[in-house]
């Protein structure tokens, strides 16, 4: 299992995340979704970068908290190797949400990592039933990461 973590959270005075904790949680998360041999790429970016991605790939010109880019499907999926895809976390948005929810930034980032990883694996929340299934799995995985 490999976790690629882009160190963008340390430039420009962006909020700091405990990278060791994030890496550990990502490894536990992958084991908990039966992907222990898989790789995950995690990018922590500022609001400007995630807004550009959100605009380009989702047509929404605003910052997002998390975006997922799965390699399990699409034209070149057969060449992906063990990499599931990219989870891009808007660290500035995550910091604001953490303050509003009265939780640590590390916990907020873990929640976003869970959400983003589930999207990589095909979970969605476009319909009510899908949302229920995804939220149930998010709660299960949060319990795993909190122990």
SSE topology sketch:
Elements: E1 2-6, H1 19-32, E2 39-45, H2 47-58, E3 66-70, E4 83-90, H3 91-101, H4 105-120, H5 128-146
Parallel strand pairs: 1-2, 2-4
Antiparallel strand pairs: 3-4
Low-confidence stretches: none
Total number of distinct structural domains: 1
CATH fold group: Collagenase (Catalytic Domain)
- Dominant shape: globular
User: Could you report the average pLDDT, rounded to the nearest whole number?
Assistant: 89
At the first level of CATH, the class is Alpha Beta
Q: Any idea what the CATH architecture is?
A: 3-Layer(aba) Sandwich
Biggest sheet, spatial arrangement of strands: 1-2-4-3
Rg on CA atoms, Å: 15 Å
> How much beta, percentage-wise?
15-25%
Describe this structure in words.
The chain has 147 residues and is an alpha/beta fold. The protein has helices at 19-32, 47-58, 91-101, 105-120, 128-146, and strands at residues 2-6, 39-45, 66-70, 83-90. The protein has a single domain, classed as Collagenase (Catalytic Domain) (3-Layer(aba) Sandwich). A 4-stranded mixed beta sheet has the order 1-2-4-3, sandwiched between helices. α4 crosses α5 (128-146). The model has no long low-confidence stretch (mean pLDDT 89).
């Amino acid at each position: 299992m490999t976790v690629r973590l882009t160190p963008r959270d340390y430039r420009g005075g962006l909020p700091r995340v405990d990278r060791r904790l994030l890496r550990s949680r990502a490894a536990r998360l992958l084991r908990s979704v039966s992907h222990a041999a898989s790789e995950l790429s995690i990018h922590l970016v500022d609001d400007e970068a995630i807004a550009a991605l959100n605009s380009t790939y989702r047509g929404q010109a605003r910052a997002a908290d998390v975006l997922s880019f799965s390699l399990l499907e699409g034209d070149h999926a057969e060449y992906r190797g063990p990499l599931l895809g990219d989870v891009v976390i808007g660290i500035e948005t995550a910091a604001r949400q953490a303050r509003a929810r009265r939780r640590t930034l590390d916990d907020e980032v873990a929640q976003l990592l869970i959400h983003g990883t589930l999207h990589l694996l095909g979970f969605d929340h476009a319909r009510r039933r899908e949302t229920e299934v995804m939220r149930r799995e998010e709660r299960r995985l949060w319990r795993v990461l909190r122990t």
